[in-house]
What we know:
Elements: H1 2-30, H2 35-65, H3 70-74, H4 77-102, H5 104-108, H6 117-145
Amino acid sequence: xxxxxxxxxxxxxxxxxxxxxxxxxxxxxxxxxxxxxxxxxxxxxxxxxxxxxxxxxxxxxxxxxxxxxxxxxxxxxxxxxxxxxxxxxxxxxxxxxxxxxxxxxxxxxxxxxxxxxxxxxxxxxxxxxxxxxxxxxxxxxxxxxxxxxxxx
Length: 152
């Protein structure tokens, strides 16, 4: 019972950390890009990736070893939608992450990364889409937890 509570806590902590990091990226990328904001975006994106990885690992540990059992989750349309959306959001997050990784050389040399307005607009749009996806993931998580959308 305590193990289940600890894993639930870790799962929620990772989820909230991921959402917070994405929200910080959203705010920072909307403003003027400075050396300080570029470095903060890079660090925040690392936190986002680590939190997402922990979320997946702990989440699947909960599915297979704790909570209601894998049969419950894999017979849930809401769970399948939640996982599918998570994968989609992860794929959408790749272009911004790759862009932020390209900034490493410039930021290490104390320079503001240079990118054209079109590329910056694309990164902003992708982060907006990620946030919308996360909101839908939260909806499906709530539906799943209440057994709504079960195939049974």
